[in-house]
Write a structure and sequence with these properties.
By secondary structure, the chain is α+β, with helices and mostly antiparallel strands. It is built from 15 helices and seven strands. It folds into two domains: 172 residues, Helix-hairpin-Helix base-excision DNA repair enzymes (C-terminal) (Endonuclease Iii, domain 2), CATH 1.10.1670.10; 116 residues, Nucleoside Triphosphate Pyrophosphohydrolase, CATH 3.90.79.10.
DNA sequence: GAGTCGTGGGT
DNA sequence: TACCCAAGACT
Protein backbone atom coordinates (compact mmCIF):
# COMPACT_ATOMS: atom_id res chain seq x y z
CA UNK A 1 0.00 0.00 0.00
CA UNK A 2 2.89 2.30 0.80
CA UNK A 3 4.26 1.70 -2.65
CA UNK A 4 0.94 2.66 -4.14
CA UNK A 5 0.95 5.94 -2.25
CA UNK A 6 4.45 6.77 -3.40
CA UNK A 7 3.55 6.03 -7.02
CA UNK A 8 0.42 8.05 -6.60
CA UNK A 9 2.33 11.07 -5.38
CA UNK A 10 4.84 10.72 -8.18
CA UNK A 11 2.34 11.17 -10.95
CA UNK A 12 -0.34 13.08 -9.11
CA UNK A 13 1.81 16.17 -8.77
CA UNK A 14 1.10 16.92 -12.37
CA UNK A 15 -2.60 16.74 -11.96
CA UNK A 16 -2.65 19.44 -9.31
CA UNK A 17 0.50 21.52 -9.43
CA UNK A 18 2.08 23.97 -11.75
CA UNK A 19 5.10 23.69 -13.97
CA UNK A 20 7.54 24.09 -11.15
CA UNK A 21 10.24 22.00 -9.68
CA UNK A 22 11.44 20.64 -12.98
CA UNK A 23 14.64 18.97 -11.90
CA UNK A 24 16.24 19.18 -15.29
CA UNK A 25 19.42 20.78 -16.31
CA UNK A 26 17.30 23.44 -17.81
CA UNK A 27 13.79 24.44 -17.22
CA UNK A 28 10.57 24.13 -19.05
CA UNK A 29 10.97 27.11 -21.32
CA UNK A 30 8.50 28.83 -23.58
CA UNK A 31 10.22 27.15 -26.48
CA UNK A 32 9.58 23.75 -24.95
CA UNK A 33 5.96 24.53 -24.23
CA UNK A 34 5.60 25.74 -27.78
CA UNK A 35 7.24 22.55 -29.02
CA UNK A 36 4.69 20.61 -27.03
CA UNK A 37 1.96 22.35 -28.98
CA UNK A 38 3.83 21.57 -32.18
CA UNK A 39 3.83 17.92 -31.21
CA UNK A 40 0.06 17.99 -30.81
CA UNK A 41 -0.19 19.51 -34.25
CA UNK A 42 2.08 16.81 -35.66
CA UNK A 43 -0.08 14.19 -33.98
CA UNK A 44 -3.22 15.47 -35.66
CA UNK A 45 -1.68 14.87 -39.05
CA UNK A 46 0.46 11.82 -38.35
CA UNK A 47 -1.22 9.73 -35.69
CA UNK A 48 -1.56 6.04 -36.29
CA UNK A 49 -4.93 4.35 -36.49
CA UNK A 50 -5.72 1.63 -34.00
CA UNK A 51 -8.97 -0.06 -33.02
CA UNK A 52 -8.64 1.32 -29.48
CA UNK A 53 -8.53 4.83 -30.84
CA UNK A 54 -12.10 4.62 -32.08
CA UNK A 55 -13.50 4.80 -28.57
CA UNK A 56 -13.55 6.80 -25.37
CA UNK A 57 -14.85 3.86 -23.34
CA UNK A 58 -12.58 3.66 -20.27
CA UNK A 59 -12.98 -0.13 -20.17
CA UNK A 60 -11.72 -0.50 -23.72
CA UNK A 61 -8.86 1.90 -23.14
CA UNK A 62 -7.87 0.00 -20.01
CA UNK A 63 -7.86 -3.34 -21.84
CA UNK A 64 -5.78 -1.90 -24.66
CA UNK A 65 -3.24 -0.37 -22.30
CA UNK A 66 -2.75 -3.64 -20.44
CA UNK A 67 -2.43 -5.56 -23.71
CA UNK A 68 0.18 -3.06 -24.85
CA UNK A 69 2.40 -3.51 -21.81
CA UNK A 70 5.71 -4.72 -23.24
CA UNK A 71 3.85 -5.66 -26.39
CA UNK A 72 4.04 -4.14 -29.84
CA UNK A 73 0.92 -2.50 -31.19
CA UNK A 74 0.89 -4.67 -34.30
CA UNK A 75 0.54 -7.79 -32.19
CA UNK A 76 -2.04 -6.45 -29.78
CA UNK A 77 -4.56 -5.29 -32.39
CA UNK A 78 -6.02 -8.69 -33.27
CA UNK A 79 -6.18 -9.74 -29.64
CA UNK A 80 -7.96 -6.52 -28.77
CA UNK A 81 -10.65 -7.00 -31.43
CA UNK A 82 -11.24 -10.62 -30.44
CA UNK A 83 -11.32 -9.67 -26.74
CA UNK A 84 -14.00 -7.06 -27.36
CA UNK A 85 -16.17 -9.62 -29.10
CA UNK A 86 -15.81 -12.01 -26.20
CA UNK A 87 -15.92 -9.48 -23.34
CA UNK A 88 -17.43 -6.23 -24.65
CA UNK A 89 -18.07 -4.70 -21.22
CA UNK A 90 -16.68 -4.76 -17.71
CA UNK A 91 -19.63 -6.86 -16.57
CA UNK A 92 -18.99 -9.41 -19.31
CA UNK A 93 -15.39 -9.70 -18.21
CA UNK A 94 -16.34 -10.04 -14.55
CA UNK A 95 -18.55 -13.00 -15.45
CA UNK A 96 -15.87 -14.72 -17.52
CA UNK A 97 -13.88 -17.77 -16.45
CA UNK A 98 -10.14 -17.76 -16.01
CA UNK A 99 -9.75 -20.41 -18.65
CA UNK A 100 -11.78 -18.34 -21.10
CA UNK A 101 -9.69 -15.28 -20.40
CA UNK A 102 -6.42 -17.19 -20.76
CA UNK A 103 -7.60 -18.72 -24.02
CA UNK A 104 -8.29 -15.22 -25.33
CA UNK A 105 -4.80 -14.20 -24.19
CA UNK A 106 -3.05 -17.31 -25.52
CA UNK A 107 0.12 -16.37 -27.36
CA UNK A 108 0.26 -12.79 -26.11
CA UNK A 109 2.57 -13.58 -23.18
CA UNK A 110 2.81 -12.30 -19.61
CA UNK A 111 -0.30 -14.20 -18.66
CA UNK A 112 -0.49 -12.57 -15.26
CA UNK A 113 -1.91 -9.60 -17.14
CA UNK A 114 -4.99 -11.57 -18.16
CA UNK A 115 -5.47 -12.96 -14.66
CA UNK A 116 -5.15 -9.47 -13.20
CA UNK A 117 -7.69 -8.07 -15.65
CA UNK A 118 -10.17 -10.68 -14.51
CA UNK A 119 -9.41 -10.04 -10.85
CA UNK A 120 -9.79 -6.30 -11.30
CA UNK A 121 -13.05 -6.66 -13.21
CA UNK A 122 -14.50 -8.82 -10.45
CA UNK A 123 -13.35 -6.39 -7.77
CA UNK A 124 -14.99 -3.50 -9.57
CA UNK A 125 -18.16 -5.48 -10.22
CA UNK A 126 -18.39 -6.34 -6.53
CA UNK A 127 -18.30 -2.62 -5.81
CA UNK A 128 -21.24 -2.19 -8.13
CA UNK A 129 -19.29 -0.33 -10.79
CA UNK A 130 -20.03 -0.65 -14.47
CA UNK A 131 -16.87 1.05 -15.66
CA UNK A 132 -13.40 2.10 -14.54
CA UNK A 133 -12.93 4.65 -11.76
CA UNK A 134 -11.67 8.04 -12.90
CA UNK A 135 -9.48 8.76 -9.87
CA UNK A 136 -5.78 8.09 -10.21
CA UNK A 137 -5.43 6.41 -6.82
CA UNK A 138 -8.36 4.10 -7.56
CA UNK A 139 -6.83 3.11 -10.88
CA UNK A 140 -3.47 2.46 -9.22
CA UNK A 141 -5.08 0.19 -6.67
CA UNK A 142 -6.23 -2.22 -9.37
CA UNK A 143 -4.13 -5.34 -9.86
CA UNK A 144 -1.97 -5.06 -12.95
CA UNK A 145 -2.21 -1.26 -13.09
CA UNK A 146 1.03 0.56 -12.35
CA UNK A 147 2.26 4.10 -12.89
CA UNK A 148 2.25 3.94 -16.64
CA UNK A 149 -1.15 2.29 -17.13
CA UNK A 150 -2.84 4.45 -14.51
CA UNK A 151 -1.55 7.60 -16.16
CA UNK A 152 -2.47 6.37 -19.64
CA UNK A 153 -6.05 5.50 -18.68
CA UNK A 154 -6.46 8.65 -16.59
CA UNK A 155 -5.27 10.91 -19.38
CA UNK A 156 -6.81 9.18 -22.40
CA UNK A 157 -10.13 8.14 -20.90
CA UNK A 158 -10.66 10.88 -18.31
CA UNK A 159 -8.59 13.85 -19.47
CA UNK A 160 -6.35 14.06 -16.40
CA UNK A 161 -3.05 15.86 -17.01
CA UNK A 162 -0.63 13.12 -15.94
CA UNK A 163 2.42 12.02 -17.93
CA UNK A 164 2.43 8.41 -19.19
CA UNK A 165 6.09 7.54 -19.20
CA UNK A 166 6.54 4.41 -21.28
CA UNK A 167 9.58 3.17 -23.18
CA UNK A 168 8.80 5.51 -26.10
CA UNK A 169 8.48 8.51 -23.83
CA UNK A 170 11.71 7.62 -22.07
CA UNK A 171 13.55 7.52 -25.37
CA UNK A 172 12.01 10.77 -26.61
CA UNK A 173 12.68 12.74 -23.43
CA UNK A 174 16.07 11.21 -22.70
CA UNK A 175 17.07 12.56 -26.11
CA UNK A 176 15.32 15.87 -25.68
CA UNK A 177 17.21 16.43 -22.43
CA UNK A 178 20.33 14.49 -23.45
CA UNK A 179 19.99 12.58 -20.19
CA UNK A 180 23.14 10.78 -19.14
CA UNK A 181 21.49 8.94 -16.26
CA UNK A 182 20.04 5.50 -16.98
CA UNK A 183 16.34 5.65 -17.79
CA UNK A 184 15.59 2.35 -16.06
CA UNK A 185 16.44 3.67 -12.60
CA UNK A 186 14.29 5.67 -10.25
CA UNK A 187 16.36 8.83 -10.47
CA UNK A 188 16.33 9.00 -14.24
CA UNK A 189 12.65 8.15 -14.41
CA UNK A 190 11.79 10.85 -11.95
CA UNK A 191 13.61 13.46 -13.99
CA UNK A 192 11.95 12.38 -17.21
CA UNK A 193 8.51 12.20 -15.65
CA UNK A 194 8.93 15.69 -14.24
CA UNK A 195 10.10 17.00 -17.55
CA UNK A 196 7.30 15.36 -19.49
CA UNK A 197 4.70 16.53 -16.98
CA UNK A 198 6.02 20.05 -17.18
CA UNK A 199 5.97 20.12 -20.95
CA UNK A 200 2.52 18.59 -21.27
CA UNK A 201 -0.21 20.93 -22.54
CA UNK A 202 -3.07 20.92 -20.04
CA UNK A 203 -5.90 20.85 -22.56
CA UNK A 204 -5.25 17.56 -24.35
CA UNK A 205 -3.18 15.38 -22.02
CA UNK A 206 -4.38 12.12 -23.55
CA UNK A 207 -3.46 13.25 -27.04
CA UNK A 208 -0.11 14.50 -25.81
CA UNK A 209 0.76 11.18 -24.19
CA UNK A 210 -0.22 9.31 -27.31
CA UNK A 211 1.61 11.82 -29.50
CA UNK A 212 4.82 11.13 -27.59
CA UNK A 213 4.34 7.39 -28.04
CA UNK A 214 3.60 7.74 -31.74
CA UNK A 215 6.63 9.96 -32.18
CA UNK A 216 8.78 7.37 -30.43
CA UNK A 217 7.32 4.55 -32.52
CA UNK A 218 7.54 6.22 -35.93
CA UNK A 219 10.17 8.99 -35.83
CA UNK A 220 12.31 8.90 -32.69
CA UNK A 221 13.22 5.27 -33.32
CA UNK A 222 15.73 3.44 -31.19
CA UNK A 223 18.19 2.49 -33.92
CA UNK A 224 17.22 4.47 -37.02
CA UNK A 225 15.58 7.73 -35.97
CA UNK A 226 14.34 10.22 -38.58
CA UNK A 227 15.47 13.42 -36.93
CA UNK A 228 14.79 15.66 -39.97
CA UNK A 229 11.10 14.74 -39.72
CA UNK A 230 10.85 15.36 -35.99
CA UNK A 231 8.59 18.19 -34.81
CA UNK A 232 10.79 18.51 -31.70
CA UNK A 233 14.15 18.72 -33.46
CA UNK A 234 14.63 22.39 -32.61
CA UNK A 235 14.50 21.72 -28.90
CA UNK A 236 16.34 18.39 -28.90
CA UNK A 237 19.52 18.71 -26.90
CA UNK A 238 20.78 15.30 -27.96
CA UNK A 239 20.37 16.08 -31.67
CA UNK A 240 22.26 19.32 -31.14
CA UNK A 241 25.09 17.52 -29.36
CA UNK A 242 25.00 14.55 -31.77
CA UNK A 243 24.54 12.03 -28.99
CA UNK A 244 21.36 10.46 -30.39
CA UNK A 245 22.87 6.97 -30.79
CA UNK A 246 23.98 7.08 -27.14
CA UNK A 247 20.52 7.92 -25.81
CA UNK A 248 18.81 6.62 -23.90
CA UNK A 249 21.26 5.07 -21.46
CA UNK A 250 20.29 1.80 -19.76
CA UNK A 251 21.81 0.61 -16.53
CA UNK A 252 22.20 -3.08 -17.19
CA UNK A 253 21.41 -5.59 -19.85
CA UNK A 254 21.63 -9.15 -18.71
CA UNK A 255 22.94 -11.79 -21.04
CA UNK A 256 20.94 -14.84 -21.99
CA UNK A 257 21.82 -18.51 -22.08
CA UNK A 258 20.78 -21.26 -24.46
CA UNK A 259 19.18 -24.42 -23.15
CA UNK A 260 18.20 -27.52 -25.08
CA UNK A 261 15.80 -30.25 -24.14
CA UNK A 262 12.93 -32.44 -25.22
CA UNK A 263 9.17 -32.23 -25.28
CA UNK A 264 7.14 -35.43 -25.37
CA UNK A 265 3.85 -36.03 -27.08
CA UNK A 266 2.40 -39.28 -25.82
CA UNK A 267 -0.41 -40.44 -28.07
CA UNK A 268 -2.73 -43.32 -27.45
CA UNK A 269 -5.92 -43.95 -29.41
CA UNK A 270 -6.49 -40.32 -30.33
CA UNK A 271 -5.67 -39.08 -26.84
CA UNK A 272 -2.61 -37.09 -25.78
CA UNK A 273 -1.00 -36.66 -22.41
CA UNK A 274 -0.78 -33.29 -20.61
CA UNK A 275 0.48 -32.19 -17.22
CA UNK A 276 -0.40 -29.11 -15.19
CA UNK A 277 2.19 -26.52 -14.24
CA UNK A 278 2.57 -25.12 -10.72
CA UNK A 279 0.40 -22.17 -9.73
CA UNK A 280 3.38 -19.85 -9.51
CA UNK A 281 6.14 -18.82 -11.83
CA UNK A 282 6.52 -19.49 -15.51
CA UNK A 283 3.26 -20.28 -17.34
CA UNK A 284 1.53 -20.66 -14.01
CA UNK A 285 -1.50 -22.99 -13.97
CA UNK A 286 -1.19 -23.88 -17.64
CA UNK A 287 -1.46 -27.41 -18.90
CA UNK A 288 1.25 -28.49 -21.32
CA UNK A 289 3.04 -31.36 -22.96
CA UNK A 290 5.69 -32.63 -20.55
CA UNK A 291 9.15 -31.39 -21.31
CA UNK A 292 12.54 -31.29 -19.71
CA UNK A 293 15.58 -29.13 -20.31
CA UNK A 294 18.10 -29.53 -17.51
CA UNK A 295 19.26 -27.59 -15.70
CA UNK A 296 16.57 -25.03 -16.39
CA UNK A 297 13.68 -27.28 -15.58
CA UNK A 298 14.25 -30.63 -13.96
CA UNK A 299 10.76 -31.52 -13.00
CA UNK A 300 9.51 -34.97 -12.29
CA UNK A 301 8.04 -36.30 -15.49
CA UNK A 302 4.60 -37.88 -15.30
CA UNK A 303 5.89 -41.09 -16.81
CA UNK A 304 8.99 -43.14 -17.16
CA UNK A 305 10.38 -42.25 -20.58
CA UNK A 306 9.34 -44.87 -23.13
CA UNK A 307 11.93 -47.19 -24.54
CA UNK A 308 13.78 -45.75 -27.53
CA UNK A 309 12.81 -46.95 -30.94
CA UNK A 310 9.13 -46.17 -30.75
CA UNK A 311 9.33 -42.44 -31.27
CA UNK A 312 9.63 -40.03 -34.14
CA UNK A 313 10.83 -36.45 -34.12
CA UNK A 314 8.37 -33.82 -35.32
CA UNK A 315 10.79 -30.91 -35.29
CA UNK A 316 11.96 -28.23 -32.93
CA UNK A 317 10.18 -25.48 -31.06
CA UNK A 318 11.78 -22.40 -29.57
CA UNK A 319 10.82 -20.17 -26.74
CA UNK A 320 12.67 -17.52 -24.79
CA UNK A 321 11.92 -15.80 -21.52
CA UNK A 322 13.85 -13.89 -18.93
CA UNK A 323 17.43 -14.79 -19.74
CA UNK A 324 16.78 -18.23 -21.21
CA UNK A 325 16.59 -19.28 -24.82
CA UNK A 326 14.91 -22.63 -24.93
CA UNK A 327 14.98 -25.10 -27.81
CA UNK A 328 12.99 -28.30 -27.47
CA UNK A 329 12.89 -31.25 -29.78
CA UNK A 330 9.34 -32.50 -30.16
CA UNK A 331 9.22 -36.29 -29.85
CA UNK A 332 6.10 -38.24 -30.68
CA UNK A 333 5.39 -41.55 -29.00
CA UNK A 334 2.51 -43.52 -30.42
CA UNK A 335 1.48 -46.54 -28.46
CA UNK A 336 -1.00 -47.91 -26.04
CA UNK A 337 -1.41 -46.24 -22.68
CA UNK A 338 -0.67 -48.61 -19.85
CA UNK A 339 1.27 -51.00 -22.02
CA UNK A 340 3.84 -48.77 -23.71
CA UNK A 341 3.78 -45.91 -21.22
CA UNK A 342 2.07 -45.32 -17.92
CA UNK A 343 1.74 -41.65 -16.97
CA UNK A 344 1.00 -40.99 -13.37
CA UNK A 345 0.54 -37.30 -12.62
CA UNK A 346 -1.03 -36.34 -15.90
CA UNK A 347 -4.29 -36.49 -17.73
CA UNK A 348 -5.28 -37.70 -21.15
CA UNK A 349 -7.23 -35.37 -23.38
CA UNK A 350 -8.88 -35.85 -26.75
CA UNK A 351 -6.79 -34.49 -29.60
CA UNK A 352 -9.46 -31.98 -30.56
CA UNK A 353 -9.49 -30.56 -27.03
CA UNK A 354 -6.07 -29.10 -27.75
CA UNK A 355 -7.75 -26.45 -29.86
CA UNK A 356 -9.79 -24.99 -27.05
CA UNK A 357 -7.20 -25.42 -24.32
CA UNK A 358 -4.87 -22.48 -23.60
CA UNK A 359 -1.31 -23.74 -23.97
CA UNK A 360 2.06 -22.12 -23.23
CA UNK A 361 4.42 -21.32 -26.10
CA UNK A 362 6.32 -24.59 -26.61
CA UNK A 363 3.20 -26.74 -26.29
CA UNK A 364 1.29 -24.39 -28.55
CA UNK A 365 3.94 -24.74 -31.22
CA UNK A 366 4.06 -28.50 -30.71
CA UNK A 367 0.29 -28.56 -31.19
CA UNK A 368 0.71 -26.74 -34.50
CA UNK A 369 3.23 -29.38 -35.54
CA UNK A 370 0.76 -32.12 -34.67
CA UNK A 371 -1.92 -30.51 -36.79
CA UNK A 372 0.43 -29.63 -39.64
CA UNK A 373 1.76 -33.18 -39.87
CA UNK A 374 -1.66 -34.74 -39.57
CA UNK A 375 -0.80 -36.58 -36.39
CA UNK A 376 -4.02 -35.22 -35.00
CA UNK A 377 -6.78 -34.47 -37.46
CA UNK A 378 -9.09 -31.69 -36.51
CA UNK A 379 -9.97 -28.43 -38.24
C1' DG B 1 17.01 -2.82 -6.47
C1' DA B 2 17.27 -6.92 -8.99
C1' DG B 3 14.69 -10.93 -10.98
C1' DT B 4 10.89 -12.68 -13.01
C1' DC B 5 7.30 -12.95 -16.30
C1' DG B 6 6.40 -14.30 -23.08
C1' DT B 7 6.40 -13.41 -27.53
C1' DG B 8 7.58 -12.46 -32.34
C1' DG B 9 9.45 -9.05 -35.42
C1' DG B 10 13.51 -6.36 -36.77
C1' DT B 11 18.36 -5.99 -37.86
C1' DT C 1 22.20 -16.74 -36.58
C1' DA C 2 22.09 -14.14 -32.52
C1' DC C 3 21.17 -10.72 -30.64
C1' DC C 4 17.78 -6.45 -29.35
C1' DC C 5 13.60 -4.99 -27.52
C1' DA C 6 8.38 -3.38 -27.15
C1' DA C 7 2.21 1.27 -24.75
C1' DG C 8 5.44 -2.55 -17.49
C1' DA C 9 3.95 -4.75 -13.15
C1' DC C 10 4.99 -7.35 -9.31
C1' DT C 11 7.80 -9.59 -5.64
Amino acid sequence: MLVRIVLYNQIFRFAVKDRKDISMKGKITKELLSAGEDLLGWYEGSKRTFPWRNTDDPYRIWISEVMLQQTQTSRAADYYLRWMELFPTLEDLARATEEGVLKAWEGLGYYGRAKNLLRAARLLAEEGRDTLPSELHALLSLPGVGTYTAAAVASIAFGLAVPALDANAKRVFARLTDLELPVDRAEGEEILRNFMGGMMPRQKPGDFNQAVMDLGATVCLSVTPSCPLCPLRKVCLSAERKTIPQRPVFSQRKKSASIEGQLWVLKSEGMVCLRRRPSKGLWADFEEFPWSAPPLEERVLPFPPPAPGFFSSLGRVRSSFTRWRLTLEVLLFEGKAGADFAPSQARWVEGRELETLPLPGPSRKARELLFAKGVISVR
